[in-house]
Structures are given as C-alpha cells and as structure tokens.
Amino acid sequence: MIFFIGIMFSTSLIFFALMLNGTIERMTTGYLEEVDYEYEAYLDPTQPPPALQGGDEKFLSYPFAAFNNEVVALQVLGPDSRLYKLFDGTRTDITDSLDTGVIISVRLQIKEEIEIGDTLHVEINNEEVEFLVQGVVDEYISDRIYMDQETLSRLLTENRSPDLYNGIYALEMPSSESYQSVLSKRGIIQQSESLQSYSRLMFNVMIAGSLIIASSIMFVLTSFTVEKNYYTISLLKVMGYSRREVNAMILNSYFAYALVSFLLSIPIALFVIRRMLFIFAQDYGIVLPLEFEPVFGLIALLLLIFIYFLSTYLSRRKIERISLQEVLKTYGQ
Question: Which residues contact 85 (CB under 8 A, 6 or more apart)?
C-alpha cells in the first residue's frame, strides 16, 4: 500500500510539472495570439468619434458590471466581426453564438462553476439583467462576458442607441490624435514576455522541485524495500544465491508492481490535480490553465522507469554491502 501511494504521489507531481508548461503564456497573452487585429484604440469621450478607416471594427467595453458580488467586464463585438473571433477550447469559432446569448471566458466559468445553458444574473447600471450562456471562450486573462452590441448599447444608453461603442480594432495604427489611447497587440505581447521571464523561472523551479521530490520518493521506496526484505536477502545469500539472482528476486520483482501502480494511479492523480485547481479557483480566485495531453502519460512512464532503475541501482549497492559474515552473525544469534 505504501508503495502504491508513493507511486501515485510521484505520478501526480510529474503530471503537475508537465502540465505547468506554457501556463504563463495561457494566463497572459495566449488569447492575443488568436485574434487578428494589430491595434486597439479607445475613443476620447470629450471629442466626437473620428471617421472609421477601411477594415476598422467597433467594440464596446464595460468593466463595471457585477456578477455574484464580483466585478466582471462586459465586451461587445460588432456584427460580422472579423478581427476578433471567439474560440472555445477545441479552437472552434463560436462567435455566432452571440446572436442567441452570451459567451463567457473559461476563467469565469471555472471560478463560478457556470455551464453552457445556465442563466446569468448580471448587474448593469444598477439594473439586474438575465443572460443565457451559449458558449465558453478559451481565455484566462480576465472574468469577461461577451455579448452582442445592441443589447449592451441599449442598456447603457437607456434604450437610446443600439450601436454605442468606445473603441475600435484595427490592422493599421490609428492616429493617436484622434483617440485617447492606442494599444499595439505586439507591444503588449512583447512587454508581457519580458515580464514572463521571472515567472518562467519560478515555474521551472516548481517543475524541477516536483521531479526531485518524485525521485526522492522512488529512492525511499526502493530503500524501504531493501530494509523490509533484509532478512530475506540474508537468507538468500546463506542459501548460495548469486548477487544478480538476489537483485532479480527482491528489486526486479517490484518493477511489474510499479507499472501496475502507475497505470492505476493515472486517473487518481488527474482527479487530485483537478480537485486542487478547483479549490484554488473557488477559495482563492486563482485559475491555473493547466492542460493535460496524452503524451504526458508516456513521458511520466519513462521518467518513473528511469527513476526506478536509478533508485534500484543505488539499492543494489546497498544489498551488496550486506556481507555473508553479517548474515551468519545475524542468524547465529
């Protein structure tokens, strides 16, 4: 049982370390790589809006809505939006779902346990409005709700305007004189990447730490196996078995058990990791976009095999140090 628990804990740590790869990018700039615009510009509310250039698309951003006593951002995309598409976790374009309801970010879905088909009660301008969830966009940057332009425009203008907007997406850089602020997508990504180097270092330390702990567990398990079978090893040596035969009987016999334990621990390890992520999201508001890929199972298996045989090599040396004189002395007593 102890051996199985050790294998399961090692598997969980290895999976967690592998799933951490790319987390920083998904949490910060991952979705920006999916959209096609190059610039986003925000209108100056004190000036009349400038004329749109060819290819520019309007958007409306409202960051002061409330859902479940938490602040959420509302984002409106113009009809037939081409520069900003919404994609779910399978990279399927779900932008058209805005015609029949709203689309929420996966970050908001995880934190609030929202499912497609649920009804949201969102407070906008001190008025509670119901929205039907029709999709989940694969975005971890913020708690965000996407909706059609007319709905939010009429809510914010007390039904006076169906096409309110406060910014544009553009392929060419808009004039900074015509807009209050102009943001470059590439600039945001580059700035974020410069800050991510420190975060990557932290995550690399966590990955290395997970592998070291997993290796230590395997070494302790094999060492425990030697200690547990000390008298058996002694008896085999008295009976005249060679060093290789003793190793095969004591250590190699545990290899098949280790493989079976690994296969049984995979669903348990994934459940433990997902449960941990759920607790982080619910209790602390931290959403880690960890992704599991089938190849991780093969990598974890190869790592465990390597760690196992490295540990058994060290344990074999411990077996060799059990001298025949010590064995006879032990049994003589």
Answer: 34, 35, 36, 93, 95
This prediction's pTM: 0.73
Which pLDDT tens digit goes with each residue over 289-330?
Answer: 888 888 888 888 888 788 777 776 766 666 566 555 555 555
> CA 175 to CA 55: how far, in whole Å?
15
Helix residue ranges, H only, 91-184: 106-112, 149-156
Return the amino acid letter for 169: Y
Per the document, the length of the chain is: 333
Using the CB atoms, write b or e for 42-68: b if 16+ within 10 Å.
Answer: bbeeeeeebeeeeebbbbbebeebebe
Q: Which one, of 219, 230, 253, lies nearest residue 323 by Cα?
A: 230
Distance of CA 324 to the CA centre of its chain: 54
